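Worked problem 6 (solution included).
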Amino acid sequence: MSDAKFDQLKAKYQSVMNLMQQKGVRLDNVNMAGDKLYVKGEAPSEAIKNDIWNQVKLVDPSFSDLTLDISAPQATAAAAGAGGSDAGGATAAGKTYTVQAGDSLGKISLHFYGKASEYMKIFDANKNILSDPDKIKPGMNLVIPD
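Solution. The predicted structure is:
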């Protein structure tokens, strides 16, 4: 049963896997974690990482059956090298997420943390671009702290 589910999810997200290969993303792990497809890799840049996330959201905007752990260490190293210790640290310690239409911080928090009530973690990590937790807009790139 698990192998069938694994094959089904790999087929569902094949366009994402193809894009990762085209963009030079180094895959570290592709397997099942519970009932979700787990993909871990390293993107050459933050822009490519965002392209991968955009493709995921085209396949399934909720991506409730996928855990995608993509890092972009070169982009993080560049931010740290530029002296951006706070901003670079926040990015290095978490993930990024591009806000979609209909999103709220509570909905994003529920996806990443399993609890909508953790939304202030996301708000606090993004005070440089957010003035109110209720005023997020599609297209914003938010840092999601660990």
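Discussion: The first strand starts at residue 26 and ends at 33.
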